[in-house]
Write a structure and sequence with these properties.
The protein has helices at 17-24, 42-47, 61-69, 88-99, 174-194, 201-218, 225-253; strands at 4-10, 30-35, 52-55, 76-79, 84-86, 106-115, 119-121, 131-136, 140-142, 151-153, 159-170. The protein is of the alpha/beta class. Strands 1, 2, 3, 4, 5, 6, 7, 8 and 11 form a nine-stranded mixed sheet that branches. α5 (174-194) runs parallel beside α7 and α6 packs antiparallel against α7. The radius of gyration is 19 Å and the shape is globular. The relative contact order is 0.13.
Length: 254
């Protein structure tokens, strides 16, 4: 029977971590939490679940997750964020993986996002949002991207899809969404600047406009009602911020 190390990185996640840890109890043989010196009740709540709790100063998303993975001793690693949880169907699918002799090197499953505790978002480009989060220990690593880190398989092994959703409880409020959008667009602007990508007024206008059209109409955000509209507007605003910030950084390169 295969064993699974559940790996989580945290910083001030008292509002999310219990839900996450409760959801993985049926499939976890060990749980590793690497925390960036939280100042809230994150450690206290983790202690209730007998996790291995390691404190490490922030290294960046990919590097922090790779550091956390070094503590995993089981045959498989399941990487999950503190604001995520396993659905019952996904728990059943992963349980079946533990029992079978014939396994792939990695597994992916859909991620379903709950917006501000109000609505499950099934359009806007947010679903199915498939993620590879379960893999054989030693077969993959995270890249070092500053934002939107990706899992890189170390071999050309097979990736199978599992039934069930990874439940993502994103943003506490619309204000929180806007605040985080501001943070991530700064990181993306610096990433694009390092890649010598260009921005100009026309690009800022057109990309912002077409982002909304794509997400609201072509990706059917309109079917998610009021919150679908809010999400698509903020996505468009994020595109505006990203390319505006990039344009400002370009001026510094001249």
């Amino acid at each position: 029977m295969h064993t699974i190390s559940v790996v989580v990185i945290t910083f001030n996640e008292e509002n999310n971590i219990e839900r996450c840890l409760q959801s993985v109890q049926p499939i976890a043989d060990e749980i590793i939490v690497v925390d960036s010196f939280s100042t809230d009740r994150t450690k206290e709540l983790c202690d209730k679940y007998h996790v291995r709790f390691v404190e490490q100063a922030w290294l960046g998303y990919g590097k922090q997750k790779n550091f956390a993975n070094t503590f995993a001793t089981c045959s498989f690693i399941l990487s999950i964020d503190a604001d995520e949880a396993l659905s019952d169907t996904l728990v059943e699918s992963i349980t079946n993986i533990k029992k079978t002799d014939h396994t792939a090197d990695a597994y992916k499953f859909n991620r379903l996002t709950n917006y501000c505790g109000r609505k499950w978002i099934r359009h806007c480009g947010w679903y199915p949002d498939a993620k590879v989060r379960l893999w054989k220990n030693g077969k993959a690593h995270w890249d070092h991207a500053e934002v939107h880190e990706s899992l890189v398989l170390d071999t050309d092994g097979a990736i199978r899809w599992l039934k069930g959703d990874l439940l993502h409880y994103t943003y506490q409020s619309i204000s929180d969404h806007i605040k985080i959008t501001d943070k991530y667009t700064t990181l993306l602007a610096h990433k694009y600047n390092a890649q010598n990508k260009k921005s100009n007024t026309l690009k800022i206008i057109t990309k912002s406009f077409f982002c909304f059209i794509r997400d609201y109409f072509f990706r059917l955000g309109i079917l998610d009602g009021y919150y679908g509209f809010v999400i698509c507007v903020i996505a468009s605003f994020g595109t505006f911020l990203k390319y505006t910030k990039l344009k400002e950084l370009q001026k510094g390169r001249r």
